[in-house]
Every structure is written in C-alpha cells, then in structure tokens.
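User: Structure please.
Assistant: Input sequence and predicted structure:
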Amino acid sequence: MRIIAKKILRDFWEAHPDSEQQLKAWYQETSKAEWTTPGKIKIEYPSASFLADNRVVFNIKGNHYRLIVKINYDYQMIWIRFIGTHAEYDKINAKTI
C-alpha cells in the first residue's frame, strides 16, 4: 500500500513520543501490505473498525490513540485522515473527516 502523508504521523509521534514505535510499525507493515478488501485488514488488525467510504479506524498503543485512514483498494493507496488521542477522536466525526 502507498501511504499518503507520513509527515502527519511523524509530527504526531514527535508530540506524543510514546506512540512512535507503534506508528512506525504500523507504517512499515502497511507499506508492505496488499489489502484488497476490509477482510484482509481484519486478519492483520482484528481491532480495526470499518466505516463508510472505505475509512478504517486503527487503535494505536492499546487504544490510547486513534488513526483514521481512507483506502482506495484498487489503487493500493491510503490517505491519513486523522491521528489523535481517544479524547480528540471523540470530538470529531470519523465518518466525514
């Protein structure tokens, strides 16, 4: 998968150093993945949640942080839509961000 906007992740882990290791691991694993369906993601990330418009919510660092991405399975592309604390996540609309 090609991930758009790694800088968003980097900026976040610089502000929240405890998330760095897991975000880097997620980035490396996802970059190597070839997901064609939500089911393929669920195999690797059982706690992932799936929303409308091909959005996926990943729990980072034991659900301390949430990562929302939008996926185009045909083109193997992922856009980072949001990364934040659980409290910040509760304040946004994950379906439209």
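DSSP finds four helices and five strands in the chain.
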